[in-house]
Design brief:
11 strands, about 180 residues, mainly beta
Length: about 180
């Protein structure tokens, strides 16, 4: 799962730093033109006689795209071709709506539900169903005077023990966190 999080984070970082007007899963992966899928093979490597050589396959990640270039799912396979985990993304036009993550047995591990208004994420509800069920609600508050400025983030975790986290910006644009 660490590799999938890295893949998703790298796609987000690439998409945010892209100079292109139309950013989607394809452009974030530096693909020009249309593609329906990308298969990445990750190899174990070693050094022999001062050179890096491929040993065996560590894992394979297959990413599928819709007609708009959005990632609709990606599956991680082990070196024997067995599914390690799968993530499915649902889209509403060009906006992400929901993400589902499943383990190797097809059991849901996580579910993310996005609430977007005016091209901004307003709230994300994360549900973990792996060992014990917990829910995390993250709400984003934007400045009334400057809608591009994120003023605060509130997180509430509901489980055996409720945890409330409040993050806010001060006048110097520094984030502060308060946990209750």
């Amino acid at each position: 799962m660490k590799y999938n999080i890295l893949i998703v984070l790298s796609m987000v970082i690439l998409s945010l730093s892209s100079c292109e007007k139309k950013v989607n899963g394809l452009t974030a992966n530096c693909v020009k033109g249309d593609a329906t899928s990308i298969t990445d093979t990750i190899w174990n490597v070693s050094e022999k006689f001062g050179e890096v050589v491929k040993d065996d396959i560590s894992q394979v990640v297959k990413t599928n795209f819709d007609d708009n270039g959005n990632v609709i799912d990606y599956t991680v396979y082990d070196s024997y071709g067995k599914v390690k985990e799968k993530t499915v993304q649902k889209w509403n036009g060009s906006e992400i709506d929901e993400i589902f993550n499943y383990d190797e047995d097809g059991k849901q591990q996580f579910h993310w539900k996005y609430y977007i208004e005016n091209d901004r994420v307003q709230k994300i509800i994360t549900t973990c169903t792996m060992s014990s069920k917990w829910v995390e609600i993250t709400t984003y508050y934007y400045s009334q005077s400057n809608p591009d400025r994120l003023d605060s983030i509130t997180e509430v975790k509901e489980s055996e023990k409720d945890i409330h986290t409040f993050r806010y910006l001060d006048e110097n644009n520094s984030y502060h966190e308060y946990i209750k």
